[in-house]
Amino acid sequence: MDKEEIRKIYSRYAAVYDVIFSQSFLPRIRLGLEKIGIKKGDTIIEVGVGTGLSFPLYPDSCVVAGIDITRKMLIKAKDKKEKRGFDHISLFEMDAENITFADDSFDYAVVPFVVSVVPDLVLMMSEIRRVKKKNGNYCDQPFPEQELGSYEARKTLFSHVSETRVEGGGAD
Question: HSE on the CB side for 168, CA within 13 Å?
Answer without folding.
Answer: 28
